[in-house]
Amino acid sequence: MKLFSIKGRSSIDGKHQSGAERIVSEKELENVLTQINKRLTRKPFDYLSIKVSLIKKQPCVIKSLKIVDVCADNVGEATEKAVKLLHSATGLSEEKIKKLIKTVHTGASPDGNNMRGAMIVDQKGERIELDPYRGVRTTEIDFIDRDEVLKKLEEKGYTERTADALAVSSKNMNYPDITAEFCTSDEPDYLTGYIAVKGYYYRITPLKTEGNTKGGRIYFVKNGINLKKLYNYLEKEAVLIEYTETD
Ligand code: PML
Description:
Elements: E1 3-12, E2 15-25, H1 29-40, E3 47-54, E4 60-63, E5 66-71, H2 75-90, H3 94-106, E6 119-121, E7 141-143, H4 146-155, H5 160-173, E8 178-184, E9 193-197, E10 200-205, E11 216-221, H6 227-236, E12 239-242
Parallel strand pairs: 4-12, 5-10, 6-11, 7-12
Antiparallel strand pairs: 1-2, 1-3, 8-9, 8-11, 9-10
Bound molecules: pimelic acid.
């Protein structure tokens, strides 16, 4: 079956506004293009692009991580829980992890803004992105039957952002040399973030302070990782995800 990758994004004054990515069959193409167009035009924009390309290599199919809800009374308690999960998945010291999280909360790009993609941190706690302004982006992903998955997630009180983040983290955790991921949104009122480790997506609220426009992702990787292969997997290889319900 012919599959197409769709990538849409909008911006205003050069600042990212909305994005949407899908993998769809030829039959779904027209409908999904309409959906994406609606999603991108919800926010004001002065630039909008939607790119469609045929996927040449058949995507591999993987299972999604299982969602585990973690509640905390405040950001401090949520961060402590996040740090413990990351410490046990990466072996990095709690102090180092806290510093890295603070970097995300204050703007991880060298100019103090949010990065477009994720930071990459090795087991020595060092940042190793090829470009620290851009980072790495996980793309070329979709759920098999995304609408059905979205319905199931929304019934459980989750959001479209949860669906997108679950897809990203499931692709990430499928890579043997990625051990964990940290993520908070850059939306000032979206306080839920997550920690992904092998098999699980720990959804933690509130993982950031209300009103903070800084957010982003950290990918924790093994020492000596081949960055060229990592970038190629995350940015170029198409992956389809089968949603797995939490028991
Ligand atoms: C969730 O709702 O499970 C957390 C999603 C984090 C989204 C981050 C983002 O979209 O920027």
